[in-house]
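We include the entry.

. . .
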Amino acid sequence: MKNLEIKNILKLTVILSFVLFSYSCDKSTEKYTYIANVPIYMSYDEFRSIPITFEAPMPLEKTGKIYFKGGKVYINELFKGIHVIDNSNPSAPSNIGFISIPGNVDIAIKGNILYADSYIDLLALDISTLSNISITKRLEDVFEPSLPPFDETFPIAPLDHDNGVVTGWKIEKITEKMDVTGNYYFGGGRLVMFDAFAGGTGEKTTTYFVPNAVGIAGSMARFIIYTDYLYTINDQDIHVFNISNTPAPMMGASVETVRVIETLFVYDGNLFVGSTTGMLIYSLGNPSNPSYLSALDHFRSCDPVVVEGDYAYVTLRAGSGCNNNTSNQLDVVNISNITNPSLLKSFALTGPYGLGIDNDVLFICDGDDGLKVFDATDKENIDKNLIKHFPGIHAFDIIPFNDVAMMIGEDGLYQYSYSDLNNLELLSVIPIVK
């Protein structure tokens, strides 16, 4: 996101209020000393000169988004690149290598081309031969500068993006001039919501005209492909890229939502957008320029969404940068009238993140409360139809496909068979190195 998380702003505002009252009204700026996250920069030329390579397997450490295509699971390692898992046998997955991509958070794949963000650039990578990955196109400066994780105990020092991309932080005491009229400045980069992307995208293979050509993403991703177009999130905007010439994406329209948006999901020719204040729906009748259809507002919250049939399923999570209230819940939304969605019912949860739906089997990653699997046939009584609860793990996002649920969390990649709903079983685990 472009601005600091709310709690950091409030914390700093309290400090500044004392400063403001200590100076006379005829002064516009004064010096102020405080402890802050001070950015560590890498020049643009340096980061763009780093080769994109396929390296030996590395342990999963700080994972992000999850993506599935062609028998392989792709797992983001925040700001470093992509783990490639051979998942031809979900009971015995194999970590086969790592695609090193500086500043990477999101990916999507069409054919043999992998689209990935690299700080402020969009890369198109030919992965037809993993040992010989090549950049087929780099679109520069298409994303706002993103900021890696920081120590939330302290505010972010002012940024100067002319110095390059921010690759990390150091905690230091700094002195700067502050505008005591109240127009002070902090930050200025796009603070990527890590609980919304470690992951912001859900894809359903039946949505596409060529279902085998594109992969399936988790519900937290911010990249999604529909036909010949790639959609990405950039703070409040949806950026559209024409990928009809797959190796050479071209930037197209930019659709302003006037919301802080986090996730994307395509279903039945419509684009469902999760934002911090509601679910938005756009028509992809003209996929080069999504058109607004409707919205269903909710309290400020992190908000991934998945859709099946006439219903959308939205998890709302309190805390973090999403809000300051205590509501954690699942909202079931009737979208039979796509221009007038209505809330059917809400169900309490513990601290939900991503979710997935497959033939009325609903998977919810409920954070520290683990993975919960529900029978969603009876939409108004989902909470009474818990099929299975897998506690004792931190669940972040999930892709249910072909009777195998691939779940990523703080503990690793977990895979479950749901071919027999009366006997859901754990197939395998690739653990996180702690």
User: Anything to note?
Assistant: The domain at 49-141+194-431 is CATH 2.130.10.10 (Methylamine Dehydrogenase; Chain H). The longest helix spans residues 6-21. The radius of gyration is 22 Å.
